[in-house]
Structures are given as C-alpha cells and as structure tokens.
Amino acid sequence: xxxxxxxxxxxESPIHLTVELPTSKSVSNRLLVLRMLSGGIVVPTKLSxxxxxxxxxxxxxxxxxxxxQGGHSLVxxxxxxxxxxxxxxxxxxxxxxxxxxxxxxxxxxxRPVRALVDALRILGADIxxxxxxxxxxxxxxxxxxxxxxxxxxxxxxxQFVSALMLIAPSLQNGLIIEFDKHIPxxxxxxxxxxxxxxAGIRIADKxxxxxxxxxxxxxxxxxxxxxxxxxxxxxxxxxxxxxSNIFLKCLHRESPQGDAALPEFYEPLGxxxxxxxxxxxxxxxxxxMTQGEKRTKQPHLLPGHTPLEFDLSxxxxxxxxxxxxxxxxxxxxxxxxxxxxxxxxxxRLTALCTELAKINPNITxxxxxxxxxxxxxxxxxxxxxxxxxxxxxxxxxxxxxxxLVYKHLQINDPHVVSKSYPDYWQHLKxxxxxxxxxxx
Length: 440
Prior knowledge:
Layout: E1 4-9, E2 15-19, H1 25-37, E3 42-45, H2 51-65, E4 75-78, H3 83-94, E5 98-103, H4 114-122, E6 126-129, E7 138-142, E8 148-151, H5 159-167, E9 175-178, H6 187-198, E10 203-206, E11 209-212, E12 220-223, H7 228-240, E13 244-249, H8 262-266, E14 271-276, E15 279-284, H9 291-297, E16 308-311, H10 319-329, E17 333-336, H11 348-356, E18 364-366, E19 370-373, E20 385-387, H12 393-399, H13 403-406, E21 408-412, H14 424-430, E22 434-439
Parallel strand pairs: 2-13, 3-12, 4-5, 8-9, 16-17, 20-21
Antiparallel strand pairs: 1-21, 1-22, 5-7, 6-7, 9-11, 10-11, 13-15, 14-15, 17-19, 18-19
C-alpha cells in the first residue's frame, strides 16, 4: 500500500486572512466528562470536531448505553492514541458500575499510567494491569468511592490530577488532592479548576493543593472556546512569512488555557499580537523583509546574538511550534523544561531533533530536558525535502509552515492533523499555500 504524502508550497504573496480556529479539545473533553458525571447538568456547546473528542464522545455513549453486566464479563473500550481520553476514562470507570477493559494503540501502551492508578487504588478503586505493570491496558471494576485525601505523583502528566478532579464531585466526601507544584503542563490543572468553578462546582486550589466538595450545581450551559494550542501554527506563519496580517476569531487573551501565553513567546520572534473585539490579530513585526533578509539580518537577535531561552515546562504543547520557528528563522535558541516530550503521542524530542536536523544538522538535545538550536540553517537543501510526522499531529502542523522558508517540502501521513485540527490543511489553502497529494 502506497504512503500518502502531501507536497506543500508556501505562498509568495503576503498572508492576509481571517481564521476560525477549532474549538479546544482540552476544554471539550473535560466538559464531556462533567456532563456525563453530572447526569446532564453541565451542558457543553460548540464541542471540538477533533478525533480525540469524537473518540471520547463515542466511548461515553457506549458506556451509557451498556446494560448492567454480571459475573466476570468485561466491556472493551479502545481510546486509540488519545492520552487525555485514556486518563480521564481511567478515573471515570473506577466509579462506574461494571467491568471494563480500557486499552489503546500500541503507542498508548507505552505511555505510563501508574501514578494515576496508584492514586485511585489508595481511594479504593479496583484496577489491575492487563499487560505490563504501570502501562495500559487496564482492567477496571467500577465501584462507589468515598473520596477523602490523596497524594498523586503528577511529574509525568498533569492529566493525572485533572482526571481525579473531574470525578471528585461524584465522591461521597469530595476530594483533597496534593501534588508537586512544579509538575509539567500545570496550566492544564488550572484550566480544569476554572472550568469546574465556572460550572458551579465548589473548588479551592492553591499551589499544589486542591479541595473539591461533593455535589453538582443547577443546570449550566458552557460554550467551548477556540483552541490556543491550534493558534500556535498561525503564530509560526506570522513569524516566517514575508508579511502577514492574520485575524484569529474567538480567541481571547484572558482565556484559562495555558497556551494563551503564545504572544509572550512569539514577541521576540517577530510577531505582534493585538487584542481586538472578537479575536486577536497577528502582525509580522518584520513586514516588508524578504525571507533572505529574515535569515541573514536576523532582526530579532538580542545584543551579542544571545540565544533566546524558552521555559516550556508549563506549555509543552508549544514546543514543536517554537522549535520549528526558531530553526526556520535560523534563530539561536534553547528550549528548556521539555523532558516529558518523550512520552507524548510520539517521542517529540527525538522527532524534533531528527526532522529539524534536515535543515540544521547541529540541532541537539541536551539530556532529556533541553533542545539546543544553534544559529543559521541550510538554505541549499534538496528540492521537496521530505519530513516524517511520527504519527503525531503537532509535528505535522509545526513542520508545514517551513514551506514559507524553503518554498517546497513534503509531509508524510498528513491525515494525523485530524487528532486536534481537522481543517488545518484547508485553512493553509485559504492562506495561499499550494497543497498536492502524491503517493510514494
């Protein structure tokens, strides 16, 4: 069977357009779990059309419609490669009557889940491993849990804390959760807390301590906002384009999403962010410069060509976009706090080093926690340079804007973007990119 490859050519003309980003899958998935647990009291609208949200919707519908089981029978639920879905369902099924075999893709079965299982077992959950200890798949026998106090090791994923938070209102005594305050992607815990608070759930959170009281509020409707993580690819385009004026609809600076920090990350990379009614506007600060001038004059360099430093410990999903942007600009940078990139949908640290070496062979990882991007890039790369996606939506979407620098490139397995941004390629067409599907 031939491999699907997308040939991407960047536009020569300035990029001026309005984009309606997908709604947030992170928000959607949290609200879907709250809707199910609350018996429909929490009513989300404008749910994400991403693969991950579709998977969670399908599995929750399956759980809802399965009749009571007897004996030792198990209902198999496959979360695919959706990490959020798997972790949220692990906690959800622990308090849902029935016998469940929760599994996922081969990559999912390499992603650790022990810390969440340990925390749930402390609370009285009946969970065992169906394969390798500490990893999916899981056999879960749902039962009522009283709640109380639990300490969770969330150094590998903030989703372990969020999963526990979401079930807390359904526990007889609520839940008090303690965790290390320096965990990666901690902004997602803040997102979960803000959504639950908006839904009327009684919650108190401070540093590494969260207290959630039992019970559900009156009916509340909550609209899912646009996805700040998806916006990162348009920040990339604004940074790499000759000239750009891009309006991102329904995106708000005061969002509880952690990736709303994008404007601060991209200001030194040449992108001006203007908050307007109904969204934000991205303007290339180096508007009018040619791509050659951007790469040789380096207008954004600090005095002495000091490398930019990005601490991404709270914003790991932005690492691919920022790394590719710096490499495309030939901009010296170091990305820190990125160790957990190795246990995402792909080993993103290895993926970034491997793919970006095609344009800058001196890019290296320092241990597991830093990515070094030296200045300069290879301007004489071969025509139609081909990049692998590693089965990872964020790698695919972050690589595509390099067509603004190298004019033509190829991306294998472009369909992976549907995990979070199904209309991504269509939106690039509207921005003036030329896309042609070829078979290898």
